[in-house]
Amino acid sequence: MTCFEDLPVWQKARELSKFIFDLTADGPIAKDFRLRDQIRASAGSIMDNIAEGFERGGNKEFIQFLYVSKGSCGETRSQSYRAFDCSYITQEVLEDLILKTTALSKEISLFIQYLRKSEFKGEKFH
Description:
Layout: H1 8-23, H2 28-31, H3 33-56, H4 59-85, H5 91-117
């Protein structure tokens, strides 16, 4: 693996970020600048921290950034509930967001477990 763009977990985080961006582009949530910007930032943070951790070149740092990414995933899920509570999104959209963020969080956790068990310690150790 040579770049973070090849990581399926990063690709899924990118898809979620795009979904959030599109969701918040129109309607009442687009006018709630604070919530719109917060949910966009937290969704973007998921993919950005995966990329930054990968680029650090060592598994320990990568794992640390994956935990930050996982936290941002939880933050995005929490903000989805706020969007629903403010009647900005439907129950169906909320359930979709919960499903997407929960699945991504689990995938990040599995990736962390894999890296912890891996003999490969990172690019910078070669």
